[in-house]
Amino acid sequence: MASVVFKDVCKVYPGGVEAVTDFNLEVRDGEFLVLVGPSGCGKSTALRMIAGLEEITRGTIAIEDRVVNDVLPKDRDIAMVFQNYALYPHMTVYDNMAFGLKLRKFKKAEIDQRVREAAGILGIGELLDRRPKALSGGQRQRVAVGRAIVRKPKAFLFDEPLSNLDAKMRVQMRVEISRLHSQLNTTMIYVTHDQVEAMTMGDRIVVMKDGFIQQVAEPSVLYDFPANRFVAGFIGTPPMNFFEGKIVAAAGGLCFSEESFNVPVPREWQEALRPYEGREITFGVRPEDLGSALARGRPDAPAIPATVEVVEPMGSETYLYLNTGHHTFIARVDAHDASAVGERQELPLDLDKAHFFDRETEAVVELPRG
């Protein structure tokens, strides 16, 4: 196991394109850390710099207290699992898994032991004599992971390893990789653009945008306390709803005012929001906090009037797509909700879970929480 530390790392490509900027991060020993963000945000570049497949423009990367900027990839003692599996088509599964050990001159008996041990962990022992073309996508991915396991590296790097699999297989492989981390207790750094993968797999998540780290936190913290509007909108399915409006004086206090509705600001939040009086601000609320049983059970809960445009049954729950006349938004309600298209509703909201974001900086407004 090993820690991995980025210090002031920057990657600039020819033409002056900065893929990663001011990247500072410590991956803890034995941690499962996920880098997540949209395409082009720099997450794969960061991973490839750890592996030595991309040169670092500025800064340092250290693996287990050893700066590896000038260390060859083969000498970094890490193993990488790629999106496209990268298996040798003419070799059997056994030989694919053993290939790296053979290059390092391991003894035949140890190679056999490591390969069969890894195959047992991954449940592919009966596939060792097959070639990649005879395997399904999920089986090929297990072989690629097995090839990494046999090396017993200090850290595993995963570069969007599940993106080529169908939805059902992705769920299965998510569980298997998480189980594998528990078994091996080795540092794993995992790159994905899928926030569901990130939320379900990571001990901590690094959210990236345009080469910059936006927030580093545990999944529940990212979800409940996003640092800015980007994180709030990126993490969560369906995404957080955003309403543009102003903070205005009302009845001796403050309220958030959108053209179709007003939301009174709780007394304990007024000091934090007073600087925004008369200014535009963004109000954010997650779909499950609109029209929920908790919100409906509060007689003083503020409500958003809207017209139902689409009803989307999901089996265990229902998504309502609504329109205030100025904003569209989503409510996640009970599976047996009887809402109909065209119906006018007043959706109570759980204000305790809501957020406000500065319109200029997009940073979250820090509010006192109970």
How many helix segments? Answer: 10
Run of helices and strands: EEEHEEEHHHEHEHEEHHEEEHEHEEEEE
Major sheet: order of its strands?
6-7-8-3-9-10
Terminal Cα span: 39 Å
Judged by helices, strands and strand pairing, the structural class is: alpha+beta
Overall number of strands: 19
How much strand? 25-35%
Mean pLDDT: 93
Give the helix level as a range of percent.
25-40%
Low-confidence stretches: none
Gyration radius from CA atoms, angstroms? 25 Å
The rough form would be described as: elongated
The main pleated sheet reads as: 6 strands, mixed
Short recap of the structure:
This protein has 370 residues and is an alpha+beta fold. It has helices at residues 43-51, 93-103, 108-122, 137-149, 167-184, 195-201, 219-224, 229-234, 270-273, 293-296; strands at 4-13, 17-27, 32-36, 58-63, 66-67, 78-81, 155-159, 187-192, 204-209, 212-217, 241-250, 253-258, 261-264, 280-285, 303-313, 317-323, 328-334, 344-348, 355-358.
Please provide a written account of the structure:
The protein is of the alpha+beta class and 370 residues long. It has 10 helices and 19 strands. The chain has helices at 43-51, 93-103, 108-122, 137-149, 167-184, 195-201, 219-224, 229-234, 270-273, 293-296, and strands spanning 4-13, 17-27, 32-36, 58-63, 66-67, 78-81, 155-159, 187-192, 204-209, 212-217, 241-250, 253-258, 261-264, 280-285, 303-313, 317-323, 328-334, 344-348, 355-358. Strand 16 and strand 17 (328-334) form a beta hairpin. Helix 2 (93-103) packs across helix 3 (108-122) and helix 2 packs parallel to helix 4. The two termini are 39 Å apart. The relative contact order is 0.11.
